Amino acid sequence: RLAPRVGIPTSEGARDAQVLAIPARKCHLMTVQITYTITGLDALIAKTSNPAQLLGPPLRKGLTTSALLVEGEAKRLVPVDTGNLRRTITHKVDGSAVPLFAEVGTNATYARAVHDGRRAGAKAPPVSAIRGWASRHGIPATALFVVARAIGRKGTKGRPFLMNAFRAMHGKIDNAMATVAREIESRWAAR
Question: What DSSP line would sit under 51-90, residue for residue?
């Protein structure tokens, strides 16, 4: 039996019952991790001489399909100014012989601020961080300090494009993983 879990690195803990909080990384990588718990995996591995051959290909295909679904939806949902954030959204599937997770995320330095927003009363962003955005939106350079201070005081609303993408694709991911389960059962019966 395959049971889904998804997580997003956060210092705030779990966001809802479906979300598994994964410890934040030291770098600025922002990811949603798709993992599936396989009930009875240890017993299945004990009964087969080559678990990687039995489980690996179907799990890799299912996790890749799931990651591509979330990646595509996240690219559709992400707010766009220059297109950089959308362009950096990508996925990675566990490289082990029996993959157990896939990650969808971005390495854009500002991704977490866009995704989670900024809390009111936080330190203002550096003027250099908003200079390009302000220029593209017709805000004069003389107003940058005031804009940065307002962001620090009022915060910004998050646009959780990764979590919303996962939630939107949850049903399709379940279908993909049900296909994985059927493929594993078929491989087991054929051995």
Answer: HHHHHHHHHHHHHHHHHHHHHHHHHHHS--SSSHHHHH-E
H-helix or E-strand containing 116?
Answer: helix 111-116
For the question of whether the overall pTM of this predicted structure is more than 0.85, the answer is no
From the number of C-beta atoms within 10 Å of its C-beta (0-12, 13-18, 19+), residue 71 rates as: buried
Name the token pair of 5: 């879990």
Q: Distances in Å between the alpha carbon of 129 and those of 8, 34, 97, 107, 191?
A: 24, 31, 42, 16, 58
pLDDT by residue for the chain (191 residues), tens digit each?
444 444 433 333 322 223 232 333 444 467 777 777 777 777 777 888 888 898 899 999 999 999 999 999 999 999 999 999 999 999 999 999 988 888 899 999 899 999 999 999 999 999 999 999 999 999 999 999 999 999 999 999 999 999 999 999 999 998 998 899 899 888 888 87
CA distance 119 to 142: 25
Please state the separation of Cα 16 from the chain's center in Å: 15
